[in-house]
Amino acid sequence: MMEEDDFEADSLLYRNFQQLVHLKCPACWASISVMVDLSVQAQTYIEDCEVCCRPMEISYQAAEGRLMQFEARALEQ
Fold this sequence. Notes:
The chain is an alpha+beta fold.
């Protein structure tokens, strides 16, 4: 069973592996933000722009809890 202090420590560690990335939507050029999980070394996924709702492909690489490479590209519909 986890103690309350253990849970708080785990929550802090988990938060440290998340990073908010500010970017321009590749479809509408609006300023938006996405949250990336730096505990995953490499990831590619589809996310809709929060302004224009068009899909974009988010790709990133991370190492040792740091964002090393990030790309967002528009997807043709």
